[in-house]
Amino acid sequence: MVTSTYTELVTEAAKVLQEEGPLPREEVLTMWLYESQIVNLLEAKGMHYRGESVKDQGWATLTVLKVAREGIPYVVFVTERNRIGCMRVLLRQIEEERLELREDKFA
Q1: Would you say residue 16 has pLDDT above 90?
Q2: pLDDT tens for residues 43-89?
Q3: Does some domain include residue 17?
Q4: Total domain count for the chain?
Q5: Bridge partners, residue 76, by sequence
Q6: Is the pLDDT of residue 22 over 80?
Q7: Residue 75 sits in a domain of what CATH number?
Q8: From the centroid of its chain, how far is CA 48?
Q9: Does residue 83 lie in a domain region?
Q10: Under 8 Å CB-to-CB from 16, ≥6 apart: which residues?
Q11: Which of 10, 18, 37, 78 is most buried (most C-beta within 10 Å)?
Q12: Local structure of residue 45 (DSSP, 8 states)
């Protein structure tokens, strides 16, 4: 019997989506990974997810990710063309351990 991971099952299911168009496969997979795994990905890097805020500025989208490391609250600012772009950047920064943590002055 062959067993598949959750990620493999979702990736396989996403193959029915178009590669181009209004909602391409890669964007769907980015949204799924971010929304379903962000807490686990941060915890694997020694951080605690505290929430986030998103502001659509018309021409760009600002996402403020709130995390804590060793009990100290931080924020991470990312501006991209849209929300999915912000998700993609944050996922890449988490994976590469390049999050620009700034102390959260309002926590």
Answers
A1: no
A2: 999 999 999 999 999 899 999 999 999 999 999 999 999 999 999 99
A3: no
A4: 1
A5: 65
A6: no
A7: 3.30.160
A8: 14
A9: yes
A10: none
A11: 78
A12: T
CA 49 to CA 40: how far, in whole Å?
A: 9
Other Cβ atoms closer than 10 A to 7: 13
Token reading at 35 = 């929304």
Question: Could you count the other beta carbons within 10 Å of the beta carbon of residue 75?
Answer: 19
Q: List the domain range (segments joined by +) for residue 47.
A: 6-12+22-103
- Cα separation, 42 vs 44, in Å, equals 5
| Within-domain flag for 1 | no
Q: Report residue 13's pLDDT band, with 50, 70 and 90 as the boundaries.
A: confident
What span, in angstroms and rounded, lies between the C-alpha atoms of 28 and 87? 11
- The pLDDT of residue 10 is above 80: no
Strand order in the sheet with 102-103: 48-56, 61-69, 72-80, 102-103
In angstroms, what CA-CA distances link 1 with 4, 6, 28, 31? 10, 16, 29, 30
Domain membership flag for residue 63 = yes
Rounded Cα distance, 2 and 107, in Å: 47
